[in-house]
Write a structure and sequence with these properties.
Elements: H1 3-9, H2 18-36, H3 43-50, H4 54-60, H5 64-88, H6 93-109, H7 115-119, H8 127-152, H9 156-179, H10 186-201, H11 216-230
Length: 234
Amino acid sequence: MTAIEQTQARPRGTRLPRRARREQLLGAAQEVFVAQGYHAAAMDDIAERAGVSKPVLYQHFPGKLELYLALLDQHCESLLQAVRTALASTTDNKQRVEATMDAYFAYIEDEGGAFRLVFESDLTNEPAVRERVDKVSLQCAEAISEVIAEDTGLAPDHSMLLAVGLGGVSQVVARYWLASGSDVPRDTAVQLLTSLVWRGIAGFPLHGAEGHHGGEHQTDHHADHHTDRAGDHR
């Protein structure tokens, strides 16, 4: 059961273990912050949504900002883990790109709307919020950059620029796809974006392709690169 489902299922006054109560309060806070934004949300609203008194809410979180930051930490970590899992899911580089694209789309499509706290917060001028958002964007880019640098032999700063571009285009396109109510199915949208990104990233030859440890897909990637240069793929 998710934190939000717990919020909906628990009547007022039900006693919960401290950790379960904290998760319930975070679920209620997420609903209120996503629906109203930080500035319009009130601790009264969150307590009412959770079915608890304000003193119970303050026992777990001393203020609205601390509650918001706890949620932000939780959902930044979820995004980072999703990206890392996608990168580790295969050694085939094209499939890696697709898995990473899909990780962003899945994160943004999640019905809880947590991505709005990370990418569309109305509190980005708050230093503690800005720091967390910048940090998770950097960490995701670093995870992607490590794979690019390992496979291409590009300098770290070059790999990082490519990684920032890949992460940026993923979340921007995914947010547009959701906000526009596009009729394009998620898997189709991911495939389209993968095709676009792969045509660029595949243009960088593999580092030591002949003896590289990635297996058969590495040879295929290298061959694709030369085919692209010859124009036969187009």
